[in-house]
Each structure stands twice: as C-alpha cells, then as structure tokens.
Fold this sequence. Notes:
This protein is of the alpha+beta class. Helix content is 34%, strand content 22%. A six-stranded mixed beta sheet has the order 8-7-9-10-13-12, with helices on both faces. A four-stranded antiparallel beta sheet has the order 3-4-5-11, with no helix packed on it. Helix 8 (195-203) links the parallel strand 9 and strand 10. The longest helix has 16 residues, at 110-125.
Amino acid sequence: MSAVRPKSASSKPMxxxxxxxxxxxxxxxxxxxxxxxxxxxxxxxxxxxxxxENPMPAIEHDKWALHECLDCGQKQHRxxxxxxxxxxxxxxxxxxxxxxxxxxxHGMGMTSAVDHVxxxxxxxxxxxxxxxxxxxxxxxxxxxxRLFGLDAVGVDRxxxxxxxxxxxxxVDLEEVPGEFDAITMFEVLEHLDDPLRMxxxxxxxxxxxxxxxxxxxxxxxxxxFASREDYYKIHPLDHNNAFTPETLVGIMRRAGFTPIAKKxxxxxxxxxxxxxxxxxxALKQRSSQRYFQML
Length: 295
C-alpha cells in the first residue's frame, strides 16, 4: 500500500492506497463508484450516525472509491484511513456512547442473543472447548460462551468497547495465550486493512482441524450508495472490504479453510423462528455467515 499524504496541515487525515486485491493479490480492478465524503447522499448518511466527534469536517474533501477485482470479484475500498488516523477514529470519533447509541438504533439485542446461543450450541456439538472471539465488541458472545461452560477469551482494538465490557478483553492477538478449538469473527473481516494476513495469524492459533465462524455483510449487487442500507454495507470509513457469499468463501479458501455445513440449532423463542431456521437449513441458502474448518 502507498499513502496519500495531506495537502496542508497535519490535522488533515491521511489515507493509504490499496493497489492490489486483498484476496487474490491481483492489480486488475474496475472502479464501481467514487466520490468525496462531503458529497450527498454519503454526507447525510455519515452525519446522521451517532459520533463522539463528528468526522465530517476533517474528511469532507477526501475521496472514496469502491473497486472490484477483475480476477476474483472481491470488492474493496481503494482508500482507507492510515493506522494513525484509525486510532483517532477509535479514540475520538467512535466513543462508547456513540457505539451504544448505534447498536440500540439497530436493535442489536435479543436477536443477537438468540444467534449467540445457537452458535454456542453448534460449537459444543462439534466438541469445542476453548473459543477466541476476535473483534468481540463489548464481549456479549464471551459471556454467553462462559454461561454454557466454554473457556472463551476475546480481542478488540476499540478502547471504548473494552472499557465498557463486563469481561476482560485483550487489545491484540499477540497478548492472547495458547491455542483454540474455534475462532469467531462476527462482522469483523470487512473492517480489516489486510484481512488475508490476519486470517493467517488467526489460523496459526487454531488447533488442527479447528473451526472458524465468519459473518460479514452481504454486499451482493451493491455498487454505491443508492440507499442507507447500501451505506451500512460499504461504509467507506468503516467497511474497508465488501464481501459476497462467494468472495467470502474465496478468501477463506486462500487462507487455508474449507466451508462446512452449519447444523440447525434451535432456541425456542418462537415457533416461527424455529420454522424459519428449518427452512433455511433445507434450502441451503447463500449466506455471508459461514462455518469453516482449517485444512
């Protein structure tokens, strides 16, 4: 990656330029859409989100560009915040209050809890005992794992999330001791600067035959900001990478994993939900939430 340096004062953000595909390494891509952060409708979407410190004054003249690899179909933003400015994003822009407001607005409550229980039941059925939740947020999945008797630890780079959690969370992977039977990444892969490198690091911490659960937003058909839903899927400050079910499998295969079947696990909050889970399993729908096993 090369860097785009600020034109004037040091208070202007610096963006890194990604010239190769984050999945297959190709330098052949097509630009799907581009613009400046201050252009509508993106400006309005960003400003309507909860923030600690609104980033718009700093970034409104900077460019974003969504590219698609011509060789493997992986989509990614060409310009991403530098490491230094990512720290500013986490320390100033994404405060704990702002994160909690965002999660409350998007109903990240009971539905997530039910999903967490289902994952735990599947992991226990696979004989998993020790779990690493990478990008664990406020640690809710860790708490659920521990309630079911699993040894679970978490990593999250956000100080706001770590300080607001009810469990102890590591700041990076290097601090975490030992190996794991399973690693989970719930809506994390899309945020990473270099996801393939991180997947390799995580793979090295799995025991032979270890399991990885990966969930990402499905950006099938999304090429720009036609709607607020598109914005949440390819947010250019937050989602560096844009996956489809096919490109998710592609990058996981390159990282040394193969997809495996996700067995049904029923949490009887309602008969309607049970029926939907059975239908999904029967239809084997395309999904951007997949289970993988280390080769």
